[in-house]
Amino acid sequence: MSKPRVAIFDFACCEGCQLQIVNLEEEILDLLGVADVVEWREAMSEQSHDYDIAIIEGSITRPEDEEKIQIIRSRAKILVALGACATIGGINKLKNNFDLDDVKKCVYKEDADMPHLETAMTKAVDEVVKVDYKIHGCPIDKKEFAYVVKCLLLGKKPEIPEYPVCVECKAQGNICVWERGQICLGPITRAGCGSRCPSVGFRCFGCRGYIDKPNVTAAKDVIEKYGLTVEDLKSKMVLFGSAQGPTNE
Ligand code: SF4
Ligand code: SF4
Ligand code: SF4
Known about the structure:
- By secondary structure, the chain is α/β, with parallel strands linked by helices.
- It is 33% helix and 10% strand.
- The chain folds into two domains: 5-153, NADH:ubiquinone oxidoreductase-like, 20kDa subunit (Rossmann fold), CATH 3.40.50.700; 165-240, no CATH class.
- β3, α3 (63-75) and β4 (78-82) form a beta-alpha-beta unit.
- α2 runs parallel beside α6.
- The longest helix is centred in the N-terminal third of the chain and has 13 residues, at 63-75.
- It is globular and about 60 Å long.
- The chain starts with a strand and ends in an 8-residue tail after the last helix.
- One iron/sulfur cluster binds next to α7.
């Protein structure tokens, strides 16, 4: 039986999630033993149009990116979004809150009009094509990556937590950072990171995206308990949950 063919692609991102894959070190050799990696710009020069599983890092920010991801989708049997940039638009989506010409000028100054800097509203991958599985986080958790890929190679559906970070945080016996005046997004954010941030005394800022059915009533109770408002909470949701703002599209 031939090995599944895997291709890894990147769009707008910092490539930190791919770095997490590389950080798997010896475990990556086990994965490579049961799959053929046929394209991965960060690690090899070969390219291929023939693959079963496409792993996509980065968000979609240009018209040509949309065309490219549609072609990848048409070639792949399974498409996996890797990391917050791909799963929810990530930090890149912050720019959707501003006029895009102003964003370019702010970053590139007098070079802002160069044609290769043309940009559009940032989209998560599933805003352009169907995504079969998501590996959340900024960056991803390398162990979760290995787990998801192993499941896919075995033909099994990976189980991704559908409960909030608070569950993992409480299980670890952490003191809630709300007690220290921090606005933590743990009650509405998808678990799976082992409550990485609150476990070191820092609030969760929502990098794994929000759970599908957040307990809004409980979240409101927490906000009220600490004398804050929903607007206070929303102000902390911008980094990884930017709503679409003004556009020049
Ligand atoms: S999700 Fe975070 S770590 Fe991963 S590519 Fe995007 S910015 Fe980098
Ligand atoms: S620190 Fe954050 S994740 Fe932990 S229990 Fe408090 S709100 Fe939940
Ligand atoms: S605690 Fe929140 S911000 Fe930190 S890694 Fe987990 S989901 Fe991301």
